[in-house]
Amino acid sequence: MNHRLALFLVVGWLSFCCHVRAETGAEAWLRYSSVKPPASSLPGLVAAVGNGEMVRTAGRELVRALAGKPANQGPVGALPNANAFVLGQWKDIHPLFPELNRSRAPAGNGFWLKTVRHGRAKYWLIIGGSDRGVLYGTFSLLARIAEQKEVATLNDRQTPSAPIRWVSEWDNLDGSIERGYAGRSIFFDNGAVRSDLTRAGEYARMLASIGINGCAINNVNASPRILGAEFLPQLARIADVFRPWGVKLAVSVDMSSPVAVGGLKTFDPLDAQVAEWWRKTVDAIYQKIPDFGGFVVKADSEGRSGPSQYGRNAADAANVIALALHRHGGLLMYRAFVYNHHLDWTDPKADRARAAYDYFQPLDGKLENNVVIQIKYGPIDFQVREPASPLFGAMPNTNQSIELQVTQEYTGQQRHLCFLVPMWKEILDFDMHVNGETPVKKIVSGKTWHHRIGGYNAVVNVGLDENWLGHPLAMANLYGYGRLAWNPDLSSETIADEWTRLTFGNNPQVVSTISKMLLSSWHIYEGYTGPLGIGTLTDILGPHYGPGIESSERNGWGQWHRSDEHGTGMDRTIASGTGYIGQYSPAVQKLYEPLANCPDELLLFMHHVPYPHILHSGKTVIQHIYDSHYDGAAQAENLVTQWESLHGQIDEERYSEVLKRQEYQAGHAIVWRDAVVNWFHRTSGVDDAQGRVGHNPDRVEAEDMQLSGYVPVDVTPWETASGGKAVVCKEGSCSASVRFDRKPGIYDLATQYFDQNNGISHYELFVNDHLVDSWTADDRLPSDKMNGHTSSRHTSSKNLRREDVVKIVGRSEGGEQAPLDYIEFYLSGY
Ligand code: GCV
C-alpha cells in the first residue's frame, strides 16, 4: 500500500472513567471527562493514514481524549480488521474505501465525519480536505462524544466560513500584556522568548480545537525588536510549538522598523531601500519559518509611527510590506483603527467614529491582494454596544477582516461575567445593505465581493494564570469566538450549551444554569454600565474598568457622550450632527437617521436627545438610565444565586473560583449603578420616578459614623463614593462606629471600602466589641486611588438588636489607608 498507516491501540480507557483530579481550568473545554462509557461502543483502535504532522497530532489527540495510552504504535500494512477510527486526508483515505468514490472531497480545511461498514468492522472516518481539516474533524468528533451527542452513525461535512481565523495577543517583550487580565505572557519574559514554551504549545492545541489557524503573538503597539536578527531564532521556537496544531505564527510590526532595527535613515514606504529592507527581512523569516502567517500593523494610531510622517497613506505603507510577504504566501493585516486622538471637543462636527471610513474608504482598490484591512467591530473601540462599523460596507475591492476582543477591556476585565457571543452575533448578522443581503459575516468571509481571503482576528490576551483568562467563565468567549469564526451561523444558545457541556459536563441543571447565566450576562453588564448605546461609561483616561462618567468628555480622545443639563448622546445625524450616519448605505441610514426609527439600544450613539425623550419602550431616556442600572445591579446579584444553586454539582475548585468573582461583580455592579445614576441625577436635575436615586435608607455613610482616628476626605471623581466622600486612616489603627437602631433580626451587613493596589488594609467588624468578621484588602485592582476601580464590598451576616454598637476597625500597610465609604444593613431574606 502507498500510504503510511500508523495504528494506535487505545489501552486502558475504561479504567479512567472515574478518576478524580483537581480542576484548575487549565484544560479548558478539552477535559474529555465525559468521553466515557459510550466509549465502550466506540472503537479502541486509531488508524492514522498519511504522513502529515497534523494527522499524527490528530491521532495522538484521539488517543489522549479516550484516556488511553497508545500501544502497538507504528506503521502497519493494512486497515485493521476491527472497529477503528480512521483519519487522514481525502487523497489518502478514499483509495482505501471504494464506496466513497462517488462522493465529494471535503473542501480546503474542512472535514467529513462518516461512518462506514466493512464486513464485520465499522470505521469512524475523519476525512480532511487537508491535514488541518483532519485535525479539525478530530476535535469536532471528540466534542460530539464529550457532549454526549449521537456518534454511532455519522455523516457530517463542515467547512470553515472564512480562511483567516486568527487570534492576537497584546504581549510585550518584557512579559507584561497590554489589557491582559490573567497574568504574564506565555511567550515572553525579560525581553526574550521564554525558554519553556509548554504553555504556548498547550495554547496552540486549544486554538486548533476551535479551528483557529493563526496567532499574532505580540502587542500591536509593537517593539521593533521583534524583527531584530537576534529575535528570529526565538520566534522560530514558537512557530515550532504551534506547527503541529496548524497554528501559523504571525507578529505585529512597527512601521519604523527599517530605521529602528534596520539602521536606515528613513522608513518612507516609497523609498527603494525601505522596500528592499522589508524584502530581506521577510525572506529571512521565511527561511527559518516557512509557514509564517504574516504581519499585523498598527500605524498612525494613538501615537504610533506611520506613513503620514512622510506624507504617504496606508496603502503605500501596507503595499510595500505586502509585496515582501506575497512571494511567500504571507498576509498583511493592516488595522483600520486609525484616528486622531487630539480631536477638538468644542467642534460639534468632530467625530472619532467617522475616522476609519474617512481614512480607508478612499483607498479601496489600491491595496495589494494579500493586504487585509482589519476593522474593529464598531467605529469606536470595543464598547459594550456599538453599531457595526460602516467601513464593512464601503470597501468592495479590498479584503477585510473583523477584529473582536475576547479580553474584556471595556466589559469587566474578567472580573465581571460578560459573554460576548450575543453581541458579536448582532454585529455579524447586521445587514449593511450594500449589495443585496450583505450581513457583516458575509462581507468579512470574502463572499460578498468574491475575495479569496478575509475573516476574523480577536484580541485574546491569555496569560500564565492556570485557567488562561482569569475568570473560569470568560473562556466561553474564547471558545465562542473560534466557533463563530468557523461558523457565524451558530446560535449563541448552541455555543453556550456546547461550551458548558465541554467545560463542566452534561448534568442538565448545570448546563441550563450556566448557559442561562452566560446568555443574560452581556445585557446585565450593559444595563449597569452604559445603556442606549452611550458607550461604556468607564474611566476612559485610566484602566477602562470602573465608572468614570465624565472622563470621556472635554478631551481629544473622542469617546464623548456629550451629556449636559439639557440632554445626552452624540448627534451623528446627517441633518444636524457629525454626518457619521451618512457613511452607511441608504437603507441603514433610514434605520438610524430618523429619531423615530432609531433602535433604543443605539439611540445615544446616533442622537443627542433631551432627558424626557420617550423611547420606543415608552420610558423616558432618564428613567431608562435609572431603571437599567437598578435592574442590572439586581440581576448581577441574581447571578450569584444562580451560581450557588450549582453547589455540589460541579467541582469545588471551579465552584469557589467563580463564586468569588460573581460576588465581587455583584458588589461592583452597585458601585457602577450608584455612580451612573447619581451623576445623571445631578446633571439632569430629573428625579427618579421610583424614588431610589439619592435615597439609601439602609446606608450609613462612614463620614457620619463615630470616628476614632479616621478622617473624612473627598473622593475623585465624586460619583464613585457615596456622598462623594470616604474616611481614611492616616496612621495605625482607626475605627468607625454606629449604634444600630433598626428592627432586630439577622442582617447582611455590607461594608463598602476601597481596595487600592498600593498597599494592604485589614478590616475587623465588631458588634458590641465582639469580633464578628475580618478581611484583608489585598486585591490587585487597577488603581492606587479611591475611585470606581477600587471600590469594593464585603458582606457579613449577623443577628442585630437595637442599641448594638457596630464598629469597623481599619489598619493599613503601605499607601492604602484602610479607606471606608459606607456600611449598609439588609434584613436577610429581603
Ligand atoms: C493596543 C484601545 C486600547 C489600547 C489598544 C488600542 C488598539 O485604545 O485601550 O490598549 O492598544 O485600543 O486597539 O490598538
Describe this protein's structure:
The protein is of the alpha/beta class. 27% of the residues lie in helices and 21% in strands. The protein contains 18 helices and 30 strands. Strands 8-11-12-13-14-15-16-17 form an 8-stranded parallel beta barrel. Strands 3-1-2-4-6-5-7 form a 7-stranded mixed β-sheet. Strands 21-24-29-26-27 form a 5-stranded antiparallel β-sheet, with no helix packed on it. A hairpin with a 2-residue loop joins strand 5 (111-118) and strand 6 (121-128). Helix 7 (272-288) crosses helix 8, helix 12 (475-486) crosses helix 13 and helix 17 runs antiparallel to helix 18. The longest helix is centred in the C-terminal third of the chain and has 33 residues, at 652-684. The termini are far apart. The relative contact order is 0.07. The model is unreliable at 11-19 (pLDDT under 50). The chain binds 4-O-methyl-alpha-D-glucopyranuronic acid. 4-O-methyl-alpha-D-glucopyranuronic acid (GCV) is lined by residues 170, 178-179, 219-221, 298, 302, 337, 381.
Characteristic terms for this protein:
830 residues; alpha/beta; 8-stranded parallel beta barrel; 7-stranded mixed beta sheet; 30 strands; 27% helix; 21% strand; globular; binds 4-O-methyl-alpha-D-glucopyranuronic acid
Ligand roster? 4-O-methyl-alpha-D-glucopyranuronic acid
Q: Specify the number of helices.
A: 18
Distance between the termini: 75 Å
C-alpha geometry:
globular
Strand content: 15-25%
Strand tally, please?
30
Radius of gyration: 28 Å
Strand order of the largest sheet: 8-11-12-13-14-15-16-17
Portion of residues in helices?
Answer: 25-40%
